[in-house]
Structures are given as C-alpha cells and as structure tokens.
C-alpha cells in the first residue's frame, strides 16, 4: 500500500513537472516567441557601421581641392588579449597575447616587447578602457598582410622579415578598422576657402564647416551572425553608405594661383604684416579668387596658429581710407547732392571748423576748386568732407546712413564662408545700451570723415562687393564661392541662385559715370596709374589708410589698397588688394598706388587673358 502511495506521489510530481514544463514551453515558444527570437538574434548578431564617404570639393574647372581617402587603423582590445574568454581558451588553450604581439611586430616592424608593454600598460591606464589605437593610417601592403594573417593561420612570409609560424587565431583581440581621411591636394592654395575638416563641425574651418551637412554622407551598416567568440560567420543584412554631395566652386584654381603668387610676392617684398586679395565677377558676385596671407597647411593643423588660419578677407575689418571715396560720391550723386559739374572749393589743403576739427590732404597737397571727378582723381580728403556736409544739409544724417547701409556696410554680405565680420557702421542716431547710454551717435566728425573712409570699418569682401555694384550698373549681388552641388549619377543637383534681388542700389547712370569716367581717370591721370594696362581699360581707386589704434591713428602704419577692374566699358572682373603695414623704412613707398595697384594690374591681366583663352577654347571645341 505504501508503495502504491509512493508511486502515485511520484507520478503526480512528474505529471505536474511535465505540465509546468509544457506551460513554460508554450510561454516561451508561443506566447513570447517574438521576444525571445529578438533576444537570440541580438546575442548572435553584430552590427558594424560603414562610414560614408564625404563629398568632393572641386574648383570651377573641376580640379579636386578636397577629397576623402579610405585609410585603416589597428586597434588592440586589451581585455580580450589579456583575459581570453573561457570559450576561446577551450578552443585554443595555448593562446597568449605575446603571440599577437609577435605577429604585429612582423607586419609593422615594431619590437614585440614594446607591443606587449602597450597591451599590459594600457589596460591599467583607465578602469574599463579596453580599446587602444596601435597604428593609424597603415599602408596598403600592411592591410593585405594583416588580412592574410587573419584568414590564414599557419605560416606567413613578410618581405624583409622572414617567415613566421602562427598559432591558430593569433590575432584574436586585434582589429582593423577603416575610416575616411580628408585630403587637400591644393594644399595652401585653398586653405582659407576650403578650410579643413575636424572631428566636430564646430571645430572645422572654411567650406568644410559651412557646408558640413551637405558634404557629409549617410553611414551604412553591415549585420553579421557571430559565434560565441564574436567572430563573424556570415552577413545577414547590409545597408550601403550614401556618399555626401559634391561641391563645384566659383573659384578657379588658375586665377587663385595668379592672385596668391602676386600677393605673397608683394607682401614679402615690402616686409608687410599681411595681405588680402579678392577677385570677383561684378555681374554675378561669383568669387573667382580669394587669398589671405600668411596662410597655413591644412594637412598640418598642429603647427598652424590661429592668426594664420584666419580668412582675413572676410574676418578682419579695417578703415578703408580713400577706396571708400567712390562709393560715397556715388551715394551723393544718386541723392542729388552733387552732379559731375558741381564745383567744390578744397580750401588749399587745410579745412577746419567747429564740431569737426581740422582736415588736411595726403602728403600736404593743396587744391582749390574741383569737381567730383577731380576730387577722386586727386583723392582730396577735404573735397569728400565737404561733400559729406552737403549731403547732411540736403538729406540729413539718417539718409546718409541708410544709403551706405544699402551698399552692405555694417552688415555681413552673406558669403558662404564662416566667421564673416559685419565691420562697423554706427547708425546715425547711435545705439542705446542696456544702461540707457547712447553710443556711436554721429557727430560732425562722422559726417566729414566717413566720406573719405574713416570712422567706418569694412572687410575686403564688403568693399569688393560695393565695387561690383558700381561696375554692374548699380545692382546688388551676393558674394559666393560655391556654384552648385554635384552628384556623380545625377549631374548638377542644385545650381545656387545668388542674386539678392533685381532692385537698384544706385542708378545705372550714376554707376556708369563713376566707373567709366571718374575711376577710369584715376588710372589714366591719377594715383592709380601703375595699374594701367594697354588695351584693358582699367579703372580703380587707390587707398592709403592710417591704422586705427586706441581711438586714434598710428601715423607710421598704413593699409595700402587698390580696387580695380576691367574693361571699364563692360567690367568682367573686380580685383581688390590690401596690404597691411608695408615697411616704410625700406624707402620704397607705402601708398596704395605704389604698393597695391601693380599687384591688381598683374592679377587683372593674367586673369582676363586666361578667361578669354578659356572662352576661346570652349567656342572652338563646340564648333568641332
């Protein structure tokens, strides 16, 4: 009887157990089937990111100035090397990190004991730190040797290193990872325009920063089924990466080189502090060349300083001096203050009065009655100061401010490059601060100094844009360095429209008179004569501006500038050159006419000849 009871108890126990097991199986395999399937897949799967290739940047003729190259790095998993998993030890009981060190030493010609020290010391640097960079940017030959060693355990021969017998799975804990490395084939030629790519957008420079998201592609992924040691067995899913968009620039490498070579030669000749050059198409605002010097090597950022990395043409405002005179003259004429026949008495070299102090002429020149054209040809400060007073009486200070604001001063141009400065043009009524004070309000000094380029600070790109407005008949343009985005499969994807609007800043009549008559005469009969080129009809204006220091001026330091273009009848290019602090002690001169105008002439001649030959080749090829 006891036996029967015991048997029944055992039966009941077993039955209950099987019922419970069945319920559990139903719970796992039916009710929560999807959940446990996902859990198993996550355990058995590994996902690797496939980095996207960044877009190419090419100049106006298709020459590559920035591209990405696939490079490989070697990483060490110190935890896996020093403490292999039980599964790993079961399959390869003799495995030891010294075998991996020996194998790596054969490929990379690094002493094995140094690799062993790296593995053991790195594991103790920081708790939880496992992955250590061993080699960055290995050669193609080393990539192939590493792959051979991974896939063919046994005997391997390394050229120049002999033959090495490898235990199975020697490189367990060693990984090779790919990445895209940015290259800049043009080096310093485009360093300020293209800039360079950093690990983060905020630390990048130039176009690499401005068009960071456009150039950046979309990473892909590859999903593997792995074994218990996480070794990939086969691929189950792959999402290919998408390359970023490519950029086509308006900047032409040849014109850029013309500008850079001429500028650097002049800066060095005059032992100047720095210099900028800008070449623009007045009809469109397209920047054909933009150079700042000193410069830097975008592939050697560690040895570059912040000063050399600045794109001075857009970041560094300065008082323009006499190159501002044509702009204010145009504003005065367009507002009916003066006409080409207006006569202004220039006070024989000295003009003073209550509320605006004393004004003299450059080199103590003395002038009497002059028309606006003569004032520009002779670059009279007094003539311009009186023009400012005439405009104040007729239009008021606010209208003066608004007219100059229309030319883009006191605000960024919107060029597609980062860190642009707005310069400084105070509102006529000033700006009220948080504590109720008013700063920057115009005075008699403002009315008489702004017309000849003092009490206002501008960037080179602002002045170049203003001269484009004069040269194209008075229309606003937006300076830009990128023409379009380009896709290898689709061609031109997005051709940017860079025109501000069809409005007139000044009348076409006024603009044409300034360029074809007044500024052409500055070159033929005035201080810009060194920029004259036979057969080119060069027009332009010189400027020799004292550098503002602490509320005053450094009487021994200047910015020598010239802005010119050609041909005057239908301008194709505008060129600006400003050279900061040419060394006066050399005795070679320091004015814009002496220092800067020959540089503009050289850039203009070479660039116009180049463009015309380029156009001729295009016409000839299309006719064939």
From TrEMBL:
Q: Which Gene3D superfamilies match?
A: 3.30.450.330, DD-peptidase/beta-lactamase superfamily (3.40.710.10), Penicillin-binding protein 2a (Domain 2) (3.90.1310.10)
One Pfam family named in its UniProt record: PBP_dimer
Q: Where found in the cell?
A: Membrane
Annotated Gene Ontology cellular components are:
plasma membrane
Q: Does the keyword Coiled coil apply?
A: no
Supply the SUPFAM superfamilies for this chain.
Answer: beta-lactamase/transpeptidase-like, Penicillin binding protein dimerisation domain
What name does UniProt use for this protein?
Answer: Sporulation-specific penicillin-binding protein
**UniProt source species:** Limihaloglobus sulfuriphilus
The opening ranks of the lineage are: Bacteria, Pseudomonadati, Planctomycetota, Phycisphaerae, Sedimentisphaerales
- Coding gene? spoVD
